[in-house]
Amino acid sequence: MGSAVRCWLCWLAVLLTAGQAQAHQSEIKVGGYDFPPYVMLSESNSQVRGLVPDLLNALNAYQQRWHFKFVPTSTKRRYRDLMDGRYDMILFESREWGWQSHDLDSASLGLNDAEVYVAQLSQAQDQSYFDSFADKNMALFNGYHYQFAGFNSNPEFLREQFNATLTYSHESNLRMLERGRVDMVVVTESFLRRFLQENPELGKEFLVSQKYDQVYRHEVLARRGSELSAAKLMKLLQGLNRAGQLSPVLERHGLHNSLPE
């Protein structure tokens, strides 16, 4: 057999193997809404950045059984989209964020984050500033469930009870604080960590609360009957962690790896 024929047969075997692997690969759709640093969507939802898409890419490179695809949703639409089958699961979520009435498969991600209060140091002076929200203008992320508000995300409630300005950007809220347009911001600690690394001069202007509004007990929530269960996803993440491929993804977005091996 000539070398050219042998080479052709080798390439054919490679293509057949790849085709068989792809044929056995199941697609898992993972939903996500604008939630920096976990998901950062463009206005048209055509582009996505953040921890979740980077984590899905890492999972796709790590194994061949499942192909993870990101599906954009919104803070309000995410409940219906999951139950209607538009996507199969959502990561870095919590049952307390409006999912209590839904029958879902879930598992703790073992990765924690938190929300902190931020104020202008010149106005706040010390930590006692965060003891009361009376007579303070707050900038909040529209659609989020805050513990200080009893996890009530209704915009009118937040405007009336907490004089809240609602936006769709943590950075916009921090910039409003910088310019003195609001008195207090509630922001994800991981996002704030990266923001201050990129804008170190503001670290001297802001006072960050030592207390948390809430500590995120991140979960994966999956629709009942989904081909990939929450427990199976956790096994994949643990494998990714043992391979040393999880920490770089988390640290790139300001999170620490607390997932047990």
From TrEMBL:
Pfam families: SBP_bac_3
Gene3D superfamilies hit by this protein: Periplasmic binding protein-like II
Nucleotidyltransferase is among the record's keywords: no
Top-level taxon: Bacteria
Tagged with keyword Signal: yes
Residue ranges constituting the Solute-binding protein family 3/N-terminal domain according to the UniProt record: 33-91
UniProt-listed InterPro entries: Solute-binding_3/MltF_N
Keywords: Signal
Family: Belongs to the bacterial solute-binding protein 3 family.
Name by which UniProt lists this protein: ABC-type amino acid transport substrate-binding protein
Source species: Atopomonas hussainii
